[in-house]
Structure formats: structure tokens, C-alpha cells
Amino acid sequence: MLVDGKPYRTIWLADDEPGLVRIIDQRKLPFRFEIADLRTTEDAARAIVEMYVRGAGLIGATAAAGMYLAAIESAAEEDFEASIQKRADFLCEQRPTAVNLRWAVERSLGELAAENSTESKIAAARQTAIDVADEDADFCRRIGEHGLDLIREIHEKKGGGDAVVNLLTHCNAGWLAFVDYGSATAPMYAAHDAGIPIHVWVDETRPRNQGARLTAWELGQHGVPHTVVADNVGGHLMQNGLVDLVITGTDRTTFTGDVANKIGTYLKALAAKDNGIPFCVALPSSTFDWQIRDGVREIPIEQRGGEEVTVMSGVPENGDDEIEIRISPETSPAANFAFDVTPARLVSKLITERGICEASEEGVRSLYPENFA
Ligand code: MRU
Hints:
- About 45% of the residues are buried.
- This protein has two domains: about 1-135, translation initiation factor eif-2b, domain 1 (Four Helix Bundle (Hemerythrin (Met), subunit A), Up-down Bundle), CATH 1.20.120; about 145-370, Rossmann fold (3-Layer(aba) Sandwich).
- It is globular.
- A hairpin with a 2-residue loop joins strand 1 (about 1-5) and strand 2 (about 5).
- It has about 375 residues and is an alpha/beta fold.
- The chain is built from twelve helices and 18 strands.
- The chain has a seven-stranded mixed sheet with strand order 8-7-6-9-12-17-18, with helices on both faces.
- Bound molecules: 5-S-methyl-1-O-phosphono-5-thio-D-ribulose.
- The site of 5-S-methyl-1-O-phosphono-5-thio-D-ribulose (MRU) has 17 residues, from helix 2 and strand 11.
């Protein structure tokens, strides 16, 4: 996507230096646009856990790039196999909820296992990192094409022409959460580019404000009309006919259609159900967990430090650098559950790279029969 008119992906391998991975440092956005370098497995792990990169697809792409760096490091160790496995386990430990992390690491290990020499293992890890990133971008682009049909249908029902389709999204399932395009935002970009008038309500998404900071920035860079709202506003908007469609992303979706996504998503799904508004979830197939049936019981929910709740950051009006402020008494503890699970019964449709399906085992099976063998 474009940043000040220049095309970027969120992660790429440097052409001119083997063993160098570059990422957009998302901790600084929207106030500063900075590129960070990853040269070691440790760098890749830190980028994931400290959220230089975040979002299911990008966590997966960074893990695949981390495996390339791990292969280079392991070539210098006495026992390549033991070393690469240790580094793979280390990468997998960094964040628990987005299944793309484990998926990417296992895909890389599988490609490495098929090679005999150290050189060919490094080459395979590098190629896998490229393939995971390219596939992520391609799948998100296709999600956009399928989701566009849903938005077009609503636009036509509203009379077409100047009628505006009002969308609501939570957190950032935009191109910053993937390699390009995004999952929830891909249909929005496709609709905007197709000339359908859309407007997006952007949930701020406490505690880290990925909506206010990242989704708003992304949509603004692409010229998509949007409004940032506090997290509690969605129900009111829906009751008053101001939302036509909710689209969110997901960090892990069971093969039965239960969806783990950023904390607060479940409440939006309940409000959508109560108001008869379609609640759709967009995801590439790398975000399905083919082992888990019951999302509420089985998906691991990340808990992060309480300081993300008690301390907020932003820039002062005078344009100085970003500052932090505490918003609650120093002695009050805070809990920070990073994700929640929306049961399939509250999800209207899943939008995938293969098309749109019901959020149910039958629906998912109709698009991905090979995973139900
Ligand atoms: O904690 P994050 O920023 O990595 O979480 C990302 C999300 O939960 C997003 O909502 C997104 O929908 C899922 S990732 C595509």
C-alpha cells in the first residue's frame, strides 16, 4: 500500500545484504514512520513480542523471516537440527493467540527438513520467508475481491449512486497487520477504489489503540473517509442505523467458525446481532486452526502487562515527541486480556481468499475440504 504516495510492504528481505530483514516499526506510527532492521532470531522474536510488528498475518511473515535468520545462525552451530528446533520453539513462544506464528514456523521447518546440505536449508528458509509473505499479500488481495461483492450488494440495496455504505471495524486488521492489503480492510480498499462511497467507523481499540493509531492512519493514507470512535460507541451507532456492515479480522479461527480477535470484538458482535447487522470476519486460511473445535475453551488468550491499560501515549499539541501519561491511581492493579472469542453463532460470514462461507464446520469445509480429511 502507499505511504505518502510510495508503495510499501510491512516486511521485506533486503536485496543487497543476505541475512537482513526490514520491517516498518509500528510502535511509532502514526507519529513517525521508521524502518527497523532484523538480523538475528532474537531480533525477530523481539519485534513480535514488543509489537514492532503485530497482526496475525504479519506475525506469521515475521516468524518465517525469523526462521531464515535462525537457519543462518544454525549453520554456525555444531548441531544444525538441534539449533534450528531450539530457535523455532523460541519464536513460537513469543505470542500465543495468533496461530499464524506456529503455522509459519512449522511450514519453514517442513521445507528445511526436505533439504540435505546446510546451504540448501538456508536457501529453503529464505524462499519460504518470501513465499509466506507473497502468499499473504495475494490472499489478502483476493479477500478484498470477495468482500467487495458484499459491500456492493449493500450499496445497491441502499439505492446505489451517492448512497454511502457505513462500515465498522475493530483494532487493525489492515495492511499493517499483514504484508499488504489487510484482511478486514481489503474489501474497504477495493470498494473505495471501485468508486463505491464508503465511510468507516474506526474503534479506537484500547488499550493499545491500534484502531486510532494504525487503522485511521492507513485509511487516511489511502483517502478512505473514516471517523475514529471510542470503543463503547459501536452499540449506539448500530441502534441508530449508522452501521451497515461490521468487518473485523481474526487471530485464530476454529474449523467450526469461532473467532478469536482483539479484545472487545465479542461485544461488537453481540450488538450487531441485536440490531440485525451483518458481522463478517475476514481471514486468510493461515489463520484457521484445524485442530480446535471450541474457541472459547481452547484458544489461548494472551495476557499482557497492566501498564498497557494504565499508561497511555500520544503526542502533545505542541508537536513534541510522543509522551506517556498514567490514567489511573498508581496503586490500582490492571488486567490486560488482549483477545476475546466470538462464537460462530454471532458471525454472519467468513470472508476468505477462496470465497465467502458460513461460520460453521460445514461452511468452512465447503471451502477447505482438504483440511477435513
Ligand atoms: O495485538 P495485535 O495488534 O497483534 O492484534 C491484532 C488484532 O487482533 C486485530 O484485531 C486483527 O483483527 C487480527 S490480526 C489480522
